[in-house]
Design goal:
Blueprint: E1 2-5, E2 16-19, E3 29-38, H1 41-48, H2 54-59, E4 71-79, E5 91-95, E6 111-115, E7 119-121, H3 128-132, H4 135-144, E8 153-157, H5 162-173, E9 177-182, H6 187-192, E10 197-200, E11 213-218, H7 225-229, E12 232-240, H8 253-263, E13 269-272, H9 279-290, E14 298-303, H10 307-316, E15 322-326
Parallel strand pairs: 8-9, 8-11, 9-10, 11-12, 12-13, 14-15
Antiparallel strand pairs: 1-2, 3-4, 3-6, 3-15, 4-5, 5-7
Helix pairs in contact: 4-5, 4-9
The chain binds NADP nicotinamide-adenine-dinucleotide phosphate.
Length: 330
């Protein structure tokens, strides 16, 4: 089968279209013929091999992962013994099983082999391209918005990004008043997601907004947690997904330690957002989509052979929503 692979760290140019064996499904596993695969910021970390501190522990001094894409939508080709939830021919979506704290990769390929709990039937009304945009970013946003209650004020920094575009919609579905913060070119898009207020980060410093937020989800990383505290209510929560602006050696580690120390002495909760994959989250996302509360925002779709261009586009930071690779032609 065709699959996108890399064997040295670097930018998008190190990716190549390779011919590799089709994986065989084992007990409890599902083999999926991939129609489309979604890219995430995590793909860039794994491809670039940053932060460097992760290489000896997780990534490998030479790439251990070797593929990109954790999210996919496609058709079940075969199921292993014991799998009853899906059958060959079903249209499904899901995530490649996670290894350690990093999402596993390799969905940008003609086939993926995953555990049965990592796939669900594709939500009614979504194309394969749209469904492939959902799993990682959608689950991360869902977990970030889990405790949001009706009438609360929620701020999403990086609201036009993969995680942010889901977070805005999920917070609205929970009845919150939502402020989205994004770059100038993305203001209209964030408004179209349902945000009640949109802040153009170039025109206004969102950490100086009127205080009163119950939750800030920070996907941007352009201000410190202590700056964001200025807009939080007492007892409110700041969740850091840490954003792209990271130290190449240590990643978010220095910031995380400072934030944890600050968290001990302030009357708000400052916490890292570490999304854990689960089949239950896919169920919840399916319900939100089928009830009309969430629609994946797909920025651009690239053919399989153009995956390096897709990754470069994601890395450029101009995407509005998700970047997806159409693995299947037509
Ligand atoms: N903790 C977890 O479990 C978890 C899970 C998923 C993702 N994440 C992290 O959450 C963050 C957001 O993920 P995402 O999928 O939403 O990423 P994304 O789609 O790239 O969006 C992030 C936003 O950051 C800004 N941005 C993009 N490129 C940038 C660059 N080169 N420099 C500075 N800002 C840039 C953009 O906003 P504007 O142009 O509007 O400023 C963009 O909309 C990432 O850092 C990712 O690693 C964490």
């Amino acid at each position: 089968m065709k699959a996108i692979r890399f064997d040295r760290y670097g930018a998008a140019e190190v990716l190549r279209l390779a011919e590799v064996p089709v994986p065989g499904e084992d007990e409890g596993e599902v083999l999926v013929r991939v129609r489309a695969a979604g890219l995430n910021a995590a793909d860039l970390h794994i491809l670039n091999g940053v932060p460097y501190v992760m290489r000896p522990f997780q990534l490998g001094m030479r790439p251990r992962v070797g593929g990109v894409g954790s999210d996919f939508a496609g058709q079940v080709e075969a199921v292993g013994r014991g799998v009853t939830a899906v059958k060959p021919g079903d249209e499904v979506y899901g995530r490649v099983d996670q290894r350690g704290i990093l999402p596993a990769m390799g969905a940008v390929a003609e086939y993926v082999r995953v555990s049965a709990d990592s796939v669900r039937l594709r939500p009614a009304g979504l194309s394969a391209v749209e469904a492939a945009a959902v799993p990682l970013a959608g689950a991360t946003a869902l977990q970030a918005m889990r405790d949001v209650r009706e009438g609360q004020r929620v701020l999403v920094n990086g609201a036009a990004g993969g995680v942010g575009s889901f977070a805005v919609q999920i917070a609205k579905a929970r009845g919150a008043w939502v402020t989205g913060v994004c770059g100038r070119d993305k203001v209209a898009m964030v408004r179209s997601l349902g945000a009640d207020e949109v802040v153009d980060r170039a025109a206004e410093d969102a950490t100086r907004l009127r205080p009163g937020f119950h939750l800030v989800l920070d996907n941007g990383g352009d201000h410190s947690p202590s700056a964001w505290r200025q807009v939080l209510l007492p007892g409110a929560t700041y969740l850091a997904s840490f954003g792209r602006r990271q130290d190449v050696w240590l990643g978010p580690l220095g910031r995380l330690l400072r934030m944890m120390a600050l968290n001990l002495v302030v009357n708000q909760r400052l916490a890292p957002l570490v999304a854990k994959p689960s089949g239950a989250d896919l169920d919840a996302l399916t319900r939100l989509i089928e009830d009309g509360h969430v629609r994946p925002a797909v920025d651009r779709v690239f053919p399989l052979a153009d995956t390096p261009a897709a990754v470069a586009h994601l890395a450029g930071g101009t995407a509005r929503g998700k970047v997806v690779v159409a693995v299947e032609e037509g």
